[in-house]
Design a protein that fits this description.
Elements (H helix, E strand, L loop, with lengths): L1 E4 L5 H11 L11 E5 L11 E4 L5 H7 L3 E7 L9 H15 L3 E7 L11 H16 L3 E7 L1 E2 H9 L6 E4 L5 E5 L1 H16 L6 E5 L3 E3 H12 L4 E4 L2 H9 L2 H6 L1 H16 L8 H5 L6 H6 L5
Parallel strand pairs: 1-2, 1-4, 2-3, 4-5, 5-6, 6-10, 7-9, 8-12
Antiparallel strand pairs: 9-11
Helix pairs in contact: 1-6, 2-3, 3-4, 8-10
The structure holds NADP nicotinamide-adenine-dinucleotide phosphate (NAP).
């Protein structure tokens, strides 16, 4: 029986595959790995069986899950006009129909104080998927992922010539985690689940929490920078994000959603209990180490 990973061409899915194949897991005799993607040629990893699966086509996805015991279900990317609740429901249905035993869903941390922010609607999609999975009768693991250290660090390191890094998080603390650390923990959970262990639990996959000021100070130390954190309000943050061509292309709704993440931080919604060690069998690496080990996105 195999372990399958959706989103295998993406940042997190591809690294989960790397971690599943890495030799430093006690469960190194790992089962066959199935990499699921909508387009076969987008998966760059070798040593895995690549199969086509689209959450929008549950019957075909169910066939692609033949022989799979454990499924890592990567949440669908945020995209305007896409019904992500239905996509996740389809994927869970496909897993049920295929006889998958356990599904791990990659969610996002949050203590409920996200309500009323511009991120609330996006978070609600995660919470509905969590509940759908719990109600499915399958074994489940909810991986409540911290915010990607990789992404905010990339923006921080690109601070303008004035050395100023700004957003609307203020003094709020947030659980950040590098994608490679998430991948390590999720791969270990999947390998454990494959052996029938550690299912039916939700875990906050973060290490230490930090404020933006602390994050900047750590980055300054690791990369020998002189960046200063200057808080700004929500409207100014939307404007700042829309100046990035990549975000501008995705539209103002995405800029508002991302600003909503910083609203969550400012309210303490992402200041949650670290449970990374319960998943990974070791504490998360210190943030400075995670920073110095970051691979290009
Ligand atoms: N915690 C955080 O800070 C954070 C940040 C950003 C995103 N996220 C969430 O975490 C997820 C994974 O992050 P990531 O960085 O790996 O994202 P990513 O690099 O954009 O990868 C997303 C993957 O989803 C797959 N996908 C898209 N639509 C699909 C569909 N209809 N059916 C099946 N697969 C589909 C894509 O695979 P193919 O194109 O090959 O099919 C792609 O590989 C994101 O989708 C998002 O929900 C979390």
């Amino acid at each position: 029986m195999s372990i399958a990973v959706t989103g295998a061409s993406g940042r997190l899915g591809s690294r989960i595959i790397d971690a599943l194949r890495a030799a430093d897991h006690p469960e190194a005799q790992s089962p066959p790995i199935v990499a699921l993607t909508r387009a076969n040629d987008s998966v760059t990893r070798t040593g895995v069986e690549v199969r086509e699966a689209d959450y929008a086509q549950p019957e075909a996805m169910s066939r692609a899950l033949a022989g799979v015991n454990t499924l890592v279900l990567i949440s669908a990317p945020v995209k305007t006009g896409v019904d992500r609740v239905q996509l996740h429901r389809n994927a869970i249905q496909a897993a049920q129909d295929a006889g998958v035993r356990c599904v791990l869903y990659t969610s996002v941390i949050g203590n409920g104080d996200e309500a009323g922010t511009w991120y609330a609607e996006t978070q609600e999609v995660n919470r509905i998927a969590e509940q759908d999975l719990k109600n499915s009768g399958l074994h489940w693991i909810i991986c409540r992922n911290g915010l990607y250290l990789d992404l905010d660090l990339m923006h921080l390191r690109a601070a303008g010539p004035d050395g100023v890094y700004s957003n609307n998080a203020g003094t709020g603390r947030c659980g950040y985690i590098a994608i490679s650390e998430l991948a390590f923990a999720i791969a270990r959970l999947a390998l454990e689940a494959q052996h029938g262990r550690g299912t039916n639990r939700s875990l906050n996959l973060i290490g230490e929490t930090v404020s933006q000021q602390e994050l900047v100070a750590l980055a300054n130390q690791v990369f020998d920078l002189q960046v200063r954190y200057v808080p700004i309000d929500e409207a100014a943050n939307v404007e700042r994000l829309m100046a990035h061509p990549m975000i501008a292309r995705r539209g103002i709704e995405v800029a508002r959603m991302l600003t909503g993440c910083f609203q969550c931080m400012s309210r303490g919604a992402f200041d949650v209990e670290p449970q990374f060690h319960l998943a990974a069998g070791r504490p998360a690496k210190p943030l400075t180490q995670q920073m110095s080990e970051l691979a290009p996105l």
